[in-house]
Design brief:
- 40% of the residues lie in helices and 13% in strands.
- The chain has three domains: 268 residues, Rossmann fold; 204 residues, TIM Barrel (Alpha-Beta Barrel); 61 residues.
- Helix 1 packs across helix 3 and helix 1 runs antiparallel to helix 10.
- The chain contains 19 helices and 15 strands.
- Helix 12 links the parallel strand 9 and strand 10.
- By secondary structure, it is α/β, with parallel strands linked by helices.
- The N and C termini lie far apart (51 Å).
- The strands form three sheets. The chain has an eight-stranded parallel beta sheet with strand order 8-15-14-13-12-11-10-9.
- Bound molecules: D-xylitol-5-phosphate (DX5) and zinc ion.
- The site of zinc ion has 6 residues, from strand 9.
């Protein structure tokens, strides 16, 4: 079974958009803490939680308790995406007589706990877990608490109790975003060892010195520590918690408050402030600009692909791009599903398998069983029927559905019916068959054209740029509409993979900033450009954005 990776990140993107829509419409609310837990909520709702939106009180449902109740927009948005109520209802947030108030209450279907006063949700969850045991029920309780919330003494009373009663049907996430109400947690009430660096907004990056997990271990909990924005790590942690018997599990999740919107990230101001409606339109575009880096390992040592995977994982790649070549569809042969199976245990980072093989419909199940998380097949060797079969096999196994087209292939008419459910479209910018080739310049226009067509036809997936992508053209590829970037010789072929991936991210971020400044200018001229730039208060962001705006002639 795959990660269901694309399904989850598309739902998370939709939920974040609803948080912005709801809070900007209400003129108040808590976007920051809704965004730090966004991937956690997405994995719980769209990979593990058993529920029926049409029967919210189904007695065997799993329970999700949002103890940090102020992040209610982050809960309501997921309930809407999950189908409990129409997404448009988010616009009633905090309005008189709405079911969606500033803090959750039972008027809203799917709400299990009236959060608001902090520190109580974990105790409430313990009651639910004990009741499930007494009633001999197998449903699970998932609870999300905040780090600021952990200043409440009742959290620690609950920590003792859950351990005493060995509540292994309880999985708790600590949304460790290092910011509470109006300042950084470590300045208000340190949960970790006193930090020496004064640039406290960056401190979450030095997780090695954390002690929060030790506190929960000392209370007898099973503790896992993860990057709370990495879907694959969240999923692995929940699976581990489910297999742990005789003790409750605490998943300490390093997160960024305001994650996904650059000016909100790591900025205490966005704990409880809503974005201005004009700014919300720019943020909506920003949430469509999430991007992923997918190093292609065949650009490395073919005799030691395991090490190439390790390099990419150490470099914090988002995907591992696996180029399968059968010597028939393309002249070269690289490896097949047996190699993928061998590499699988090295990392939980999603495997992005690019099948350059003939008759993929005959072999696709082998690549699912080998542990691929996304499988892309070529349109040149498919038709509506065979791709339909591949599509159904992949969706049934929670594997991302990918279609690839060569430089001289247009998007096929037979594939139009699949557009709403294709997760990834690879637009090849080299003739497939080997890495190290030069980017075919005409691909820029081709991607721009296809991107426009796909958006009109309700494509919610990601366009992957594959072939000859490097630091000189990746920004342009982003502006064309690509959101996943394969780097073979430009990443894996480099000496320092980790630094190169960071440089790729910086280049793409530069292009994204330029796109958003352009959007601000389109919406409101120089005045809105300056307003947008002024929002970026943390670190050096404002200076960098001003430079971009100057070069674009907007200020
Ligand atoms: C080519 C492959 C690409 C290639 C990328 O057939 O599909 O993924 O390995 O390598 P570079 O980035 O070097 O072109
Ligand atoms: Zn490829």
């Amino acid at each position: 079974m795959g990660l269901n990776y694309y399904h989850i990140i598309k739902q998370v993107r939709e939920a974040r958009k609803l948080v912005i829509r709801g809070t900007s419409n209400a003129g108040s609310g808590h976007p920051g803490g809704s965004f730090s837990m966004a991937e956690i909520m997405g994995c719980i709702f769209f990979k593990f939680l058993r529920y029926d939106p049409k029967n919210p009180l189904w007695e065997d449902r799993d329970r999700l308790v949002l103890s940090k109740g102020h992040a209610s927009p982050g809960l309501f948005s997921n309930l809407a995406v999950a189908g409990y109520f129409d997404k448009s209802e988010i616009e009633t947030l905090r309005k008189f007589e709405s079911r969606l108030q500033g803090h959750p209450d039972f008027k809203c279907p799917g709400v299990e706990f009236c959060g608001g006063s902090l520190g109580i949700g974990l105790s409430f969850s313990i009651g639910m877990a004990l009741a499930a045991r007494i009633d001999e029920k197998s449903h699970r309780i998932y609870t999300v608490i905040g780090d600021g919330e952990s200043d409440e003494g009742q959290v620690w009373e609950a920590a003792m109790t859950a351990s005493k009663y060995k509540l292994d049907n309880l999985t708790v996430f600590l949304d460790r975003n290092f910011i509470q109400q109006d300042d950084y947690t470590e300045r208000v009430m340190p949960l970790d060892e006193i930090l020496v660096s004064d640039d406290i907004s960056e401190m979450w990056k030095d997780a090695a010195r954390w002690k929060t997990g030790d506190k929960w271990r000392s209370f007898g909990w099973n503790v896992l520590e993860i990057d709370g924005h990495r879907v694959e790590q969240i999923i692995k942690a929940i699976k581990s918690a489910q297999q742990t018997k005789g003790t409750p599990s605490m998943i300490v999740s390093r997160t960024i408050k305001g994650k996904g919107v650059e000016h909100m990230e790591d900025n205490p101001k966005w704990h409880g402030v809503a974005p201005d409606p004009k700014i919300a339109q720019i943020i909506d575009l920003e949430l469509d600009c999430q991007f992923l880096i997918a190093p292609s390992i065949i650009a490395g040592d073919m005799t030691n692909l395991g090490n190439e995977v390790k390099q990419a994982a150490h470099g914090r790649a988002d995907f591992i791009h696996l180029d399968v070549m059968d010597g028939q569809f393309v002249p070269n042969t690289t490896f097949d599903h047996t190699k993928i199976k061998e590499l699988r245990s090295i990392t939980q980072i999603p495997f992005d398998a690019h099948l350059m093989i003939k008759e993929p419909v005959k072999h696709v199940r082998n690549y699912v069983e080998a542990g691929s998380d996304i499988i892309t097949v070529h349109a040149e060797v498919c038709d509506e029927s065979s791709f339909g079969e591949i599509h159904d096999v992949l969706r049934a196994n929670e594997v991302g559905v990918g279609l690839a087209i060569n430089p001289d292939t247009e998007f096929p008419n037979w594939a139009e019916k699949f557009i709403p459910t294709i997760d990834q479209l690879i637009v090849m910018s080299v003739v497939p068959g080997k890495s190290g080739q030069k980017y075919i310049e005409a691909t820029h226009e081709k991607v721009q054209k296809i991107s426009r067509i796909l958006i009109d036809k309700k494509f919610t997936g990601f366009i992957e740029a594959d072939g000859g992508v490097d630091l000189s053209n990746v920004g342009s590829c982003f502006l064309d509409g690509a959101r996943v970037f394969v780097g073979g010789s430009a990443i894996i072929g480099q000496k320092d993979v980790r630094t190169t991936i960071t440089e790729f991210r910086k280049k793409i971020q530069q292009a994204r900033r330029k796109l958003l400044i352009q959007k601000a200018h389109d919406l409101g001229g120089t005045e809105l450009v300056n307003k947008w730039i002024d929002l970026h208060e943390v670190g050096k962001k404002k200076i960098e954005l001003l430079q971009i705006a100057k070069e674009a002639g907007f200020v």
